[in-house]
Amino acid sequence: MNFNNIKVPPGGGAASALIKAGILGALGLYGVANSLYNVDGGHRAIVFNRIYGIKDKVYPEGTHLMVPWFERPIIYDVRARPHLVESTSGSRDLQMVKIGLRVLTRPVPDQLPTIYRTLGENYNERVLPSIIHETLKAVVAQYNASQLITQRENVSREIRKILTDRAAQFNIALDDVSITSLTFGREFTAAIEAKQVSAQEAERAKFVVEKAEQDKKSAIIRAQGEAKSAQLIGLAIANNPAFITLRRIEASREIAHTLSNSTNRVFLSSEDLLLNLQEMMSQMSSGKK
């Protein structure tokens, strides 16, 4: 710009110099303000030049210089970000499965110029949904519906391996892949519930059978014990008739103890309480004679 052609009123030399200085200062301030840009933590920047296009250099965190108007920075967030994707696929036994997947992705910092040239800034929306849906359908089709539940860790590991390889083709890194939900159709869910009910009923029937066997063994053992006890009591009575009298005395003692601890008053004859000890003593003496 030629400032010498600017016309000013006569006698305005000082004003002309002031105007020139103001214009130069404004241009200098504009140049300084637009020649610096900042890259925050967890971000990387690439520069687009109006003459050469995207530069191959990746700028790290900090403050950097650029040529105003000719260059502009494009800043990428290179931190891992979660993405939740749900897909409905068919298992090997033709059961429909709705599977939810959570992936942590981030761009490869050294490949940001290539990512911008091929995918742009919204690379996640262009790449992740398609490769995730394709991977889920391919992996789920290799397992039965029941295997998806019992072998969930293996399924997740296989999905992660395939997704990592596919995403690497687009310069995207996967830090984690995890299955968040598995939902089956109504028919399969009803079949699982019926199977669980049948298994519980079978276990219950097994328990009833085992309990009956134990009760049978217990009854046999109790009968054998009672028979042995009756045999011993019979031998004791045959050898010593006073055994019955001893049992009557013990029974009388228990009855008397129970009545003594009772808060009620009970009036019964000694014969009913088996407490007629005098009669028992006379019977014992007569037996000895």
General description of the model:
- The chain is of the alpha+beta class and 289 residues long.
- The protein is built from 8 helices and 8 strands.
- The protein has a 3-stranded antiparallel sheet with strand order 3-2-5. A 3-stranded antiparallel sheet has the order 6-7-8. Strands 1-4 form a two-stranded antiparallel ribbon.
- β2 and β3 (53-54) form a beta hairpin.
- α3 packs across α5.
- The longest helix has 54 residues, at 186-239.
Mean pLDDT over all positions: 82
Secondary-structure element string: HEEEEEEEHHHHEHHH
Termini distance? Answer: 157 Å
DSSP, total strands = 8
Topology:
Elements: H1 13-33, E1 36-39, E2 43-49, E3 53-54, E4 62-65, E5 71-77, E6 81-90, E7 96-107, H2 112-118, H3 123-140, H4 145-150, H5 152-168, E8 172-184, H6 186-239, H7 242-260, H8 277-288
Tag the structure with descriptive keywords.
three-stranded antiparallel beta sheet; 289 residues; elongated; single chain; alpha+beta; 8 helices
Q: In summary, what is this structure?
A:
This protein has helices at residues 13-33, 112-118, 123-140, 145-150, 152-168, 186-239, 242-260, 277-288, and strands spanning 36-39, 43-49, 53-54, 62-65, 71-77, 81-90, 96-107, 172-184. By secondary structure, the protein is an alpha+beta fold. β6 (81-90) and β7 form a beta hairpin.
